[in-house]
Design a protein that fits this description.
The complex is a heterodimer of chains A (299) and B (211). Chain A has 299 residues and is an alpha+beta fold. Chain A folds into 2 domains: 2-131, Beta-Lactamase (2-Layer Sandwich); 140-297, Alpha-Beta Plaits, CATH 3.30.70.270. Chain A has 12 helices and 12 strands. Chain A has helices at residues 2-9, 28-34, 38-41, 46-49, 56-68, 76-79, 125-139, 149-165, 180-187, 189-206, 230-246, 274-289; strands spanning 13-17, 23-26, 72-74, 100-108, 114-123, 170-177, 212-215, 220-226, 249-251, 254-256, 260-266, 295-297. Chain A has a 5-stranded antiparallel beta sheet with strand order 2-1-5-4-3. In chain A, helix 9 (180-187) packs antiparallel against helix 10. Chain A is elongated and about 85 Å long. Chain B is α+β, with helices and mostly antiparallel strands and 211 residues long. Chain B has a single domain, classed as CheC-like (Chemotaxis protein chec, 3-Layer(aba) Sandwich), CATH 3.40.1550.10. Helices cover 40% and strands 25% of the residues of chain B. Chain B contains 5 helices and 8 strands. In chain B, strand 7 and strand 8 form a beta hairpin. Classes of the chains: A alpha+beta (299), B alpha+beta (211). Chains A and B meet through helix 5 and strand 4 of A and helix 1, helix 4 and strand 5 of B.
Amino acid sequence: MIFNQISDMINMGLVVLDKDLKVHFWNRWMALHSGIDPEKIVGQSLFDFFPNLNEPKFLRNCRSVFAFGNFAFFSQKLHRFLFPFRPAYSDKARFDYMQQSCTMGPIRAEDKTVRYLFLSVNDVTEVVNYEEQLIEMNRKDALTGIFNRRFFAQKLQEEFIRSRRHNRPLSLIMIDIDHFKQVNDNHGHQVGDEALKAFSAKVLARLRKTDLLARYGGEEFACLLPETSGSSALILAEDLRRIVAEENWVCRDVSLQMTISIGIAEGRAEMADSEALLKKADDALYEAKTGRNRAILYD
Amino acid sequence: MAEVQFSVLEKDILQELMNIGFGQAAADLAQVIDLSIELSVPDIQLFKACDLREHIATEVDSDQEFSLVEQYFLGKFKGIALLVFPAKAGKQLVSLFGLQDQRSSPSYHLELLEKEAMIEIGNILIGACVGKITELLNDVVIYSPPRAMIQDLRNSALPKNLFAPSSMAISMKTVFHFEQQEISGQLFLIANQESIVWLKSALHAFMEQYE
């Protein structure tokens, strides 16, 4: 009696399947979230109700439970969910379906042979919501909304390795807004902040989806360009330089003129690591800054 | 902690038992995953727990990049299972398991698929081997979700609550080989000192059936 009540009160889905994968038990949680009452589903094939589960991985894991008494884990990261239920509590529209973490394991007879398998279903939608928000916050620059330096450093390394492995071009541009300190000094930090936001949006609009723009420092930005040669990156950089210089920036009713200096470098075989690429782009930026409003490709 | 010894006879019995268990596991694996797999005669060694990582690192060919799946098992027999693959095996496993068809699903890209394939084969292989041994010794274990890592053997530490550094641990190593696909790897089952004590009595109980 106690166990019957627990299985109906517990905040978790519990399903028991027999060897033919017919439903032997279906707890109240499953009934409430699926809208399918136990009387309707018990004795029926699970796949009649959930055809999405009739696929090799699920079947393989069922077989391994019956063959070895094994456990199988269906993590939210890889599977999102097993049972397509609507999110129960979340009012955020991030997910169409309840995110689930599921475990499968054996139920044995007295003689220890595996008679049934159980499936436990945990609703992890809220946890995943928070997790994704945290990941997002960890990657983005709070002011401009573009990526931050930490995430950029990680992607730079990954893209550098990828370009090397597949022998594909990769370019990096470093951008510095000329004399930006004067904007802050003359008009205040609020205008400066607005300018950085507007600038980021403008640059982002000129980039491809596959490019990665990050705020590298105060008024310094980095842009990673996969599948792009140094000469193509130079064309883009010249474009950005012109766009920024020609724009009539209005931030908090203050009209501003901005120019940028750009250093560009392309990944080369002789570079030991992604740090070397960064160093070259930085060197080129340093050179560009001696004249301002220039783009220089390291060669 | 007192050192636990394993007599030559006990080691022989364990080896024989593992041979039986792995034989059955291989046969059942063929049914479950439709692939024939060969499991070598296990190599059994006792160590101080603190030396185990080093031991495994030396057993694994360090010139090669490798991937690792680890999973804990918990029963009277408790410890950690480590599955070591050459890094390049990930891609082969993806096609072996027909996972490439899922590439269109959200959030699937190749590295994730490789990880998933390794986790799945790891879970099944570890479950088959641990399950068969414990079945023969009349124990039932539960498992933690498996985790896949890349080249993390030396840096990751064994959990101290399971493996006190001064305690003994037993390592059972087998080489597995998927015959059609030329994929090989190593499986280490490492049980803690408590398990060794239990293992000794369970082995004697196992032998009594035949005496």
